[in-house]
Specification:
- The protein is of the alpha+beta class.
- It has 2 domains: 149 residues, no CATH class; 185 residues, 3-Layer(aba) Sandwich (Rossmann fold).
- Helix content is 26%, strand content 32%.
- Strands 9, 10, 11, 12, 13, 14, 18, 19 and 20 form a 9-stranded mixed beta sheet that branches. It has an 8-stranded mixed beta sheet with strand order 3-1-2-4-8-7-6-5, sandwiched between helices. Strands 15-17-16 form a 3-stranded antiparallel beta sheet.
- Strand 6 and strand 7 form a beta hairpin.
- The radius of gyration is 20 Å and the shape is globular.
- InterPro entries: P-loop_NTPase.
């Protein structure tokens, strides 16, 4: 697609959203992403219900903002997209239809989600064909692609990692699926002094290697593993379900356990060993890069080279340790606490 064709579609899209915003209930929220204000306009009850819960801990009362994003569901609003100049069946597997220095346009056909990003005018549009058709696990990372694109030219990078803090300092927990990352973060909720930044994605400053910021207040646990976390049982009625896990929106049940930022002391690479004791073993920057970069790149589907370079710079600035997990879930938070309290 050439730029003139894209711009013609974009200007028509703006008009569509203006009309939809005037005709439907619109919920405006200012969200603090790494000290950047995102003014989100959730047009319609369905979009607010689906996208807001994971972000409630980051909502501010300020109306000052650096960026705007408009979210609309086609089905409930009865609003169709403008006629495109491309053929839907010719969109590449990446979903990317158009990209230049100022604009990005993508469409994920498998879930019916269109994203338009305008760096020059500092706004984005998100159109969902049907929210009820979306998999429930998508509720746990709203606006992730938009946030990634916004921070591309900065030192800030979304990374596939959990974060646990003691006071103003904390550690990153990163590893491939099944490494014990999420369960370790979850177990820290039962520690009196540790705080939870996230278990899946967080924002980090890859230039100074120090600043970490929360993205989502969601914790996840497999159905069969819930019994290991007995402290969560009283809240079970508030959990949401996806295909494999419970989604726990922590700002609803444990807001005092959340932290929105901390200074990073180290990167921990959890490893399941079956050991009762559990321990930390010094690791190399290359180990941290291997644990952090591939999953971050594959899940974000953004500028792969830029993301790799940012993450590579980050791991060079921080000590890394393999966390050989104890089979006793209560022991692992103590290992983290002892490291941060040294």
């Amino acid at each position: 697609m050439n730029k003139s064709s894209f711009l013609a579609f974009y200007r028509q899209l703006e008009v569509v959203y203006q009309k939809a915003k005037a005709a439907s209930p619109c919920y405006a929220h200012t969200i603090d992403f790494a000290r950047q204000g995102f003014l989100a306009h959730f047009i319609g009850d369905e979009t607010d219900f689906f996208y807001k819960p994971a972000l409630t801990h980051l909502l501010t009362k300020s109306t000052n903002h650096d960026f705007e994003v408009f979210v609309l569901e086609g089905l409930s609003s009865n609003v169709a997209l403008p006629s495109p100049s491309w053929k839907w069946n010719e969109i590449p597997p990446t979903g990317e239809i158009y990209r230049d220095d100022d604009f990005i346009l993508t469409f994920e056909s498998w879930c019916g989600v269109l994203r338009v990003f305008n760096r020059k005018e500092k706004k984005a549009y998100l159109w969902i064909q049907s929210i009820t058709a979306l998999p429930q696990w998508m509720r746990s990372f709203p606006l992730r692609s938009i946030v990634d694109w916004y921070f591309e030219p900065t030192a800030i990078q979304p990374v596939h990692s959990g974060g646990i803090a003691l006071g103003n300092n904390g550690i990153m927990l990163t590893g491939k699926g099944g490494s014990g990352k999420s369960s370790t973060c979850l177990s820290c909720l039962n520690h009196d002094e540790l705080k939870y930044l996230g278990d899946d994605f967080m924002l980090v400053n890859c230039e100074n290697g120090k600043e970490a910021f929360s993205l989502y207040n969601v914790a996840k646990v497999e159905f069969e593993n819930l019994e290991k976390f007995k402290f969560l049982e009283p809240h079970r009625g508030k959990f949401k379900k996806d295909d494999e896990k419970y989604q726990i929106f922590l700002n609803e049940i444990m807001p005092n356990k959340l932290t929105n930022n901390f200074e990073i002391d180290a990167i921990f690479l959890p490893k399941i060993t079956g050991s009762k004791k559990g321990k930390l073993i010094k690791a190399d920057a290359s180990d941290a890069l291997l644990a952090l970069a591939p999953s971050t790149i594959s899940l974000l589907k953004g500028n792969r080279e830029l993301t790799f370079n940012k993450v590579s710079n980050l791991v060079k600035k921080l000590p890394a340790y393999t966390l050989e997990l104890s089979s006793d879930f209560e022991r692992n938070p103590e290992i983290i606490y002892n490291y941060l309290n040294k």
